[in-house]
Amino acid sequence: QVQLVQSGAELKQPGASVKLSCKASGYTFSNYDINWVRQASGQGLEWLGWMNPNTGRTGYAHKFQGRVTMTRNTSITTAYMELSSLTSDDTAVYYCARAITSWFRDFDSWGQGALITVSS
Amino acid sequence: DIQMTQSPSSLSASVGDRVTITCRASQSIATYLNWYQQTPGKAPKLLISASVNLQSGVPSRFSGSGSGTDFTLSISSLQPEDFATYYCQQSFATPLTFGGGTKVEIK
What is the tens place of the pLDDT at every residue in B61-83? Predict the structure, then answer.
């Protein structure tokens, strides 16, 4: 079955960077875009960007441009999302999600989420 | 950015009730509208894509409709497992944006 397994929770200092991983299994990794979405405690969902695992092509929300980098390692079917210059506003649960289609960007499978806490 | 406005933000309903949640886009998004269900501590679950397409395994009591700027998610007969928060998401343009959520609570 399709599975996305994310790396664990992290505590980061303000100004630091965090790199999250998302290990895909149960399907052909290269065939579906991976997106990243975050959710602050008690809040709604916020999209950070997407990556095509086949080409490595990415697209980022302009809010995160310059701070976010999405990459992948196809040999181990893993996607990564690095977010830099962290502030307390970045404290949230971060999800990776597979898009079934590139045009409707409908996310049918999600990772379990990784809580990133930014605090001194 | 396209703003997605859901209403109501919360509602109380009983098992067996029909529930309707609306989502309005700040500009036309054709049918580039997806619906998700989220329970506490869990990742969202895709219910409906492209405004009307029910995902495999999702009960038929869920349905979606709409195009342009106005969309609706309906639950024909609310079940205990349906008490959750529901989000709409537009995929017409980046950045992809979500509605603020509708929390469905037990009356």
Answer: 999 999 999 999 999 999 999 99
What is the Cβ-side half-sphere exposure of residue B84, based on CA atoms within 13 angstroms?
Answer: 21
Residues of B with Cβ-Cβ distance to A112 under 8 angstroms: 43
Chain B residue with minimum CA distance to A48: B95
Distance from CA of A96 to the nearest CA of B (A): 10
- Chain B interface disruption, residue of A4, A35, A100, A105, most B CBs within 10 A: A105
Using the beta-carbon criterion (under 8 Å), do A110 and B43 form an inter-chain contact? Answer: yes
What residues contact residue A94 under an 8 Å CB cut-off, 6+ apart? A6, A20, A36, A37, A38, A48, A81, A113, A114, A115, A116
Nearest chain B residue to A98, by CA: B46
Residue A2's contacts (CB-CB under 8 Å, 6 or more residues apart) are A24, A25, A26, A27, A98, A108, A109
State pLDDT tens for residues A32-45: 999 999 999 999 99
